[in-house]
Amino acid sequence: MSLMSKYNMITISTSREEDELTLDNYKSKIIRLIDENIQIISTTEGWNSKNRMKKMLTDGDYKTTFSLRTNAKIIKRMSGLYLPENTQKLLFLQDAKESVQKGEFDSDILIFLEKEKKSIQERKDEARERRKARQEDERKRKSEEAKKLIHETANHLQFSC
Fold it and tell me: Distance between CA 24 and CA 28 in Å, rounded?
C-alpha cells in the first residue's frame, strides 16, 4: 500500500530546488531530513527559528500536512493526515522514510528535478542575455566616445592650422 493511500493524503503543490540534480542525491537528502525530523520530534528540543525550514509535518486545526522536501525547498506537499500525538508523527515519518527508500516518490522527485533543470537553464539564459546587452551598451558607449574624441581632435587641428 502506498504512503499516500495508507494515510489518505492528497498532493497540494510543488516547488523548485537546486544543487546536484540526481535522484539518489535527493533521496539521501530527504532521508537525512526525515531522520532530523524524527530526532527533533523525539527530543524536547522542538522547532525553533534555526531548524523550522526543515520541518516536514505542519499541524493545522484538524489535519497535518506532510511536505516532501530538502530543507527550505518543497518537492511535494500532501494533506489529509490526522497526527495529534508525537508517537503518531514518529511512526508516520518512519513510514515516509521507508517509502522514499523503496522509490515510491521517485517519479515526483524526477519531475521536480526536470523542472529545476529547466529553471536553472532559463536563469542562465537570462543572465547571458543581460551580459550581452551590457557588453553591447559598453561597445556603443566606447564607440561614441571615440567618435567624439576624433571629432574634437579634427576640430582642434583645423583651428590650429
Answer: 6
- Whether residue 83 contacts residue 7, with contact meaning beta carbons closer than 8 Å, is answered with no
Contact (CB, 8 A) for 41 and 55: no
pTM over 0.70? The answer is no
Section 4-16 average pLDDT: 65
Q: Count other C-beta atoms under 10 Å from residue 86's C-beta.
A: 10
Q: Which residues neighbour 59 within 8 Å (Cβ) at sequence distance 6 or greater?
A: 83, 84
The C-alpha atoms of residue 93 and residue 37 are separated, in whole angstroms, by 8
For CA atoms 66, 83, 80, 6, give the dihedral sign: positive
pLDDT digits (tens, 9 = 90+) for 73-115: 889 999 888 888 889 999 999 999 999 999 999 999 999 888 8
Please answer whether residues 3 and 104 qualify as being in contact, where contact means their C-beta atoms are separated by less than 8 angstroms.
Answer: yes
Full strand arrangement of the beta sheet holding 73-81: 10-11, 73-81, 64-70, 57-59
- DSSP three-state, residue 64: strand
CA dihedral 33, 47, 72, 62 (to 10 degrees): 100
DSSP-derived 3-state class of residue 111: helix
Evaluate whether 12 touches 81 at the Cβ level (below 8 Å). no
